[in-house]
């Protein structure tokens, strides 16, 4: 599939660093670049991790997070912001303050919030006391929120077992934040994947085929970055979702097979397909 880039949007990723390169800042840079955007970063935490899990986390002081965001925005400008791992309440507050400041001068700014809470291997990436701050200060600033099912359950307090449950949770999030919601259904059982998109135009379902593989590390980061890039390029939300989901599907299908655990995707497939024996 071809991934056209009608313009080169400036996309700022605010997230944690993944030393294994499969998720976080590293996945975001690869995705934004592959889809024709210009990637910029503000790092919220350093992590020591690989495909087998997160070994250690070093949070970045909140003022330094704000400094990173501000110096990038004030010099290079920004068309879209994507947030991922934030860590603690002070980091979450710092990010919300700077996004609100940026929005004052750029009312059309695209903000995609991926409410990252737990790593693929089970490590906590958002402190419990930061959940309320995320819900009340950051999510209302978002253009689009991209939770998976466990994250949506924590944010809403609802139990999600079916697609109808997903629609109810998406509606709750939309009503409480004003943002569009893409609720990812990968945690539901079955070979068919259903993602639910809800915005002011109503509810849509995006149906795909599950790929049976262990190489799915960084799928959430990759999807959110793809959405930020394609939305900043001017695609309508349903088209951005469709193209971004296809990009992630192809990146999983062409995963390079690295590591002994949850392996990374192949983000460069748009111009450099991986060849596996």
Automatic annotation (TrEMBL):
EC number of the protein: 2.7.1.49
This protein's pathway: Cofactor biosynthesis; thiamine diphosphate biosynthesis
GO biological process: thiamine biosynthetic process; thiamine diphosphate biosynthetic process
Keywords: ATP-binding, Kinase, Nucleotide-binding, Transferase
Annotated GO CC locations: cytosol
Every Pyridoxamine kinase/Phosphomethylpyrimidine kinase domain range: 18-265
Matches recorded under Pfam families: Phos_pyr_kin (PF08543)
CDD domains in UniProt: HMPP_kinase
UniProt enzyme class: transferase
Gene Ontology terms for molecular function: ATP binding; hydroxymethylpyrimidine kinase activity; phosphomethylpyrimidine kinase activity
Name of this protein: hydroxymethylpyrimidine kinase
Native organism: Acetobacter lovaniensis
């Amino acid at each position: 599939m071809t991934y056209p880039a009608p313009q080169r949007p400036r996309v700022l990723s605010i997230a944690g660093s993944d030393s294994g390169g499969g998720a976080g800042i590293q996945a975001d840079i690869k995705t934004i670049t592959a889809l024709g955007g210009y990637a910029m970063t503000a790092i919220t935490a350093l992590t020591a991790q690989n495909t087998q899990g997160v070994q250690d986390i070093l949070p970045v002081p909140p003022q330094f997070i704000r400094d990173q965001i501000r110096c990038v925005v004030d010099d290079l400008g920004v068309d879209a912001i994507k947030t991922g791992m934030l860590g603690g309440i002070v980091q979450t507050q710092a990010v919300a303050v700077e996004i609100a400041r940026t929005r004052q001068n750029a009312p059309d700014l695209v903000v995609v919030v991926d409410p990252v809470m737990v790593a693929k291997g089970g490590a906590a990436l958002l402190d419990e006391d930061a959940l309320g701050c995320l819900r009340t200060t950051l999510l209302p600033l978002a253009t689009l929120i991209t939770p998976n099912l466990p994250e949506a359950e924590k944010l809403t307090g609802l139990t999600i077992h079916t697609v109808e449950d997903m629609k109810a949770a998406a509606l709750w999030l939309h009503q409480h934040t004003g943002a569009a919601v893409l609720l990812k259904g990968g945690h539901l059982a079955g070979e068919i994947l259903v993602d639910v998109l809800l915005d002011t135009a109503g509810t849509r379902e995006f149906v795909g085929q599950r790929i049976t593989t262990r190489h799915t590390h960084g799928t959430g980061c990759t999807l959110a970055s793809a959405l930020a890039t394609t939305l900043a390029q001017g695609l309508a939300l349903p088209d951005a979702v469709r193209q971004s989901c296809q990009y992630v599907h192809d990146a999983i299908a062409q995963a390079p097979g690295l590591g002994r655990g949850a392996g990374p995707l192949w983000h460069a497939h748009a111009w450099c397909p991986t060849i596996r024996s």
